[in-house]
Amino acid sequence: MLRSLHVSNYILIDSLDVEFPGGLVIITGQTGAGKSILVGALGLLLGGRADSSLIGPRGENCVLEAEFDVSGDETVRAAVEAEDLDWNGGLLTIRRTFSRSGRSRSFFCDEPVGLQTLSALAPHLIDIHSQHRNLLLSDRDFQMEALDLYAGAVPSRKAVGELWKELSGLKASLEEAEEKLRRLSGERDYNEARFERLDRANLRDGELEELEEELKKLSNVGQIKDAFSGVEALASPEEGLSPSAALKEAGKLLSRMSGFVPEAGKLSERLESARLEIEDVFEEVSSLSEGIDASPERLAWVEERLSLLYDLMKRHSCSDIATLIKERDALAEALYDTDSIEFAIADLRKAIAAKQGEYDRAAEGLSKLRKDAAPRFSEAVAGSLDFLQLEKAVFKVSVTDAPAGPSGKDRITFLFSSTGKDPEDLRKCASGGEMSRIMLSLKAMMARFGSLPTIVFDEIDSGVSGSVADRMGEMICTLGDSMQVFAITHLPQVAAKGRAHFIVEKTSTDDGAVSTVRRIDGEERTLEIARMLSGSTVTPAAIANAKSLLNI
Question: pTM of the entire structure?
Answer without folding.
Answer: 0.63
